Amino acid sequence: MAVAVLGTETLYNVLDNLKGKKVRRIYIAAPYDAPDEEGKQANVDRVTLAAVRLAQRGFLVFAPHLSHYIALRAEKINETIPRDYWLNWGLRWLELCDAMVVLDLSEGVKWEIRFAKRHHIPVYFSLQELYRASSLDRSGFASTPTEGSCYL
Prior knowledge:
The protein is α/β, with parallel strands linked by helices and about 150 residues long.
């Protein structure tokens, strides 16, 4: 069996180091649609920057905006992926996450917030609020987000 090498550590060493550690899965919610491609790209860039910041702090990040690149590739080869597919895809991933961080609101984001609340997924409205909540106890999150931190 081949073993991937990551710097001086093998993949097995990395996995051994993770045993017993809870890695928090974070869903990033933000508007995607925009009047033009530049606007969409700006929205994607904002989410990817947030993903970088979260990854640097050890969170396992799900950024649905990265599907933008799959959609662009499909378009380039004259294929389409229905919008309903992407909506279902994002919600299925959200169900697996430990928390959601909202960067800005849109109708779609409000819908994702309602879905998260129905599934008892904490919703935070800034990276800083998420960082504070994740440091409150050993499990990684306060049992309830702070007052005013989430839409009900």
